[in-house]
Amino acid sequence: MRTRFLSKMTNGEVEDYLDRNDLIYVPVGVTETHGALPLDSETVLAEAIAVKMAEASDGLVLHNLPYFFPGGTIVGRGTIQMSIKDGMAYLDKIAKSLLNQGFRRQIYITSHGPAYLTLSGMVRDFFDETKVPVLYMDVLKAAEAANFNLMDAFHDMTIGAYKVLGRLEDVPMNVLESHSVTYDIQHMLAGMSRNPGNALGKYAYQSGAVGSYFDEPSDHMATPLLKTPEEREAHADAGVQAINELVKALDMPTIVETLRQVDVYTKDTILPKYSAHLPDGKA
Length: 283
Fold this sequence. Notes:
The protein is α/β, with parallel strands linked by helices. It has a single domain, classed as Creatininase (Rossmann fold, 3-Layer(aba) Sandwich), CATH 3.40.50. A four-stranded parallel beta sheet has the order 2-1-3-4, sandwiched between helices. α2 links the parallel β1 and β2. α2 packs across α8 and α3 crosses α4. It is globular.
């Protein structure tokens, strides 16, 4: 295929694709302070992983979704705030439009910790309303399920994602340390420890336990110091390799086939039983 990105295709190319398949990946991102990396780094990572997944399973990708709930990083003036409920409503409209156009199998991808607050609720509500199962894959949880060590490779993968998308030049070098940037993980941890809300965060997953903000933007993430183009290229190459390894470990053809089976099982087995209990006999 000329491209996997839906917005870069012609309408005729999309229609030809839908004549043979119904699979689309939707990487959902965030625009937030992220150390010495660009504000869209976690959007770019989700997009790069999504396109690799699409290549592995003959899917398309609907990208350019960078403005969703950021979590505690609103202390960075580059962070764009979106409420959870507004993000859910927006994605619900997109999901229904995709379904109406013929994309019955939809897989939503995120690499941002608090994204589950938006995505999990949307995916569940969408199913209850349409009776069509769509899948949410949190890269952090997906890596855990595939026994892939994501944390050691996360920054390389983020830089590598820019290379996958042909945007490596967007990753800056020699960024000075400041209230927004630290290269010292101990400095980051010390800053995080000042917020008493972190003591309560262990009682639920990520931002779902208690509302709080970071003290300074640099508390969010210690990122690698990139001094030369050669160092940036080396991180990117390692990251591209890690992205490929993760996607291979996940076995996307099996995942998308299982999603199809869930849809068939829902229609053929669950809904007839469910409909029998409704007053008008219709699901």
